[in-house]
Specification:
alpha+beta, 15 strands
């Protein structure tokens, strides 16, 4: 057909959406745009004017809002006090006392909606240290377990976990050196065991042992030790010889003045001294090695026969020790492990076990259970335990 020879009409090009331009904008839209621009400009101008004029009442301190947070603490940190200044609540403060009748009424009938009155201040004997060259910088501070965070914020939960009862602290200035001082902290726990537990938890592996406190060590600027149910910290403000000399004298003074009490620490005394890595001593009150039957456990690392191993001791009643040994034996045979009862040694029952690529040897004699755990060489563990039971490692 003749029509088939005609060229096909070209396809009309696709329009680009960006080419669309509104030429006729309604008057209502123009008015709305102008109003919005005026509002934005007005807000900006208002903020500029407001920022140029400071309102002191906006940031004024409302002291009544702080009453509910007032801690019942006796004394103030001496290291934070400038010479000659007084702190609110201390003798010499400028606040005028209320009449007795008014004070009694306020105490007896708190205002409606007011926060509960703070607990009575923790009382105790002042921390007095009579050494030449020292002068107290302020009153002794006392903190209970409840408000301990006010003094050692961030560390308080760990202390509460070991049943801390009270903190007594005071700062002393060094008379011969302006600006030098020594801080003294005495954390009292409910038992020597828990005092040792907290001391062991915070122990610095780089510390040097003390000759006047068996459970103690010295750092560059501090002396830390357990004496009875008290965990003592003596910290110098600097490393000047005079400051350090007085700091160590204070530490020795506290070790003499505080009563010695090792009740509950029989397990600690069972740890032999030969080969002991002193900074590795630890106390685990519950679930030692993940076992519910291991409580109040003392453990440490030892250098022995060219290697290192971990040894633990738990002291309890004979029945409890026997039950714990049996439970440990049963557990060690689970999860693909291998446990073998060994011949008795020096009056103690023994078993050896291999679990997850490590070995252990556990003993039980009367009210004592312990052993070497998590070592690659089971024979080395057995040698250590048998020598310990025979009294050859003391």
């Amino acid at each position: 057909m003749a029509g088939s020879d005609l060229p096909k009409p070209a396809a009309s090009p696709k329009r680009n959406r960006n080419e669309f331009v509104r030429e006729n904008i309604p008057a209502s839209e123009r008015v709305a745009s102008a109003v919005l621009l005026c509002l934005i400009l007005g807000i900006g101008v208002g903020l500029w004017i407001k920022g140029k004029h400071f309102d002191p009442n906006r940031y004024a301190l409302r002291t009544d809002a702080l009453k509910s947070t007032a801690g019942a603490v006796e004394g103030k940190a001496g290291t934070l006090r400038s010479a000659g200044e007084t702190q609110p609540g201390e003798e010499g403060a400028s606040a005028a006392p209320r009449p007795k009748a008014e004070a009694a009424t306020a105490e007896a009938e708190p205002a409606e909606g007011a926060a509960a009155a703070p607990k009575p201040a923790i009382k105790g004997e002042p921390l007095e240290i009579a050494l030449p060259g020292l002068k107290p910088m302020g009153a002794t501070e006392f903190y209970s377990s409840d408000n301990l965070f006010e003094k050692i914020d961030g560390r308080a939960p760990a202390y509460q976990g070991f049943n801390v009862q009270q903190l007594r602290s005071r700062s002393f200035s060094v008379n011969a050196l302006s600006g030098s001082f020594v801080d003294v902290y005495e954390f009292r726990f409910d038992s020597p065991v828990n005092a040792f537990g907290m001391f062991a938890l915070e122990r610095d592996p780089k510390g040097k042992p003390l000759d006047f406190a068996p459970d103690g060590y010295a750092g560059e600027m501090g002396w830390f030790f357990r004496q009875g149910a008290v965990y003592v910290q003596v910290i110098a403000s600097d490393q000047k010889p005079e400051t350090l000399a007085l700091a160590v004298a204070i530490a020795q003074n506290r070790a003499k003045q505080l009563p010695a009490d090792d009740a509950g620490l029989a397990g600690r005394r069972k740890l032999p001294a030969e080969g002991l890595i002193a900074d590795s001593i630890a106390f685990v009150p519950d679930n030692a090695q993940g076992q519910a039957f291991l409580k109040n456990v003392y453990q440490a690392n030892y250098n022995f026969a060219g290697g290192k191993l971990s040894f633990f001791v738990m002291v309890t009643g004979p029945g409890e020790a026997a039950a714990a040994w049996k439970s440990y034996l049963d557990f060690s045979g689970q999860f693909g492990g291998k446990a073998t009862v060994l011949p008795d040694a020096s009056g103690a029952k023994l078993f050896a076990a291999e679990n997850f690529g490590t070995a252990k040897v556990i003993y039980q004699r009367e009210g004592e259970i312990g052993g070497v755990v998590d070592v690659p060489n089971g024979e080395l563990a057995r040698q250590f335990v048998e020598k310990y039971l025979a009294g050859q490692i003391k």
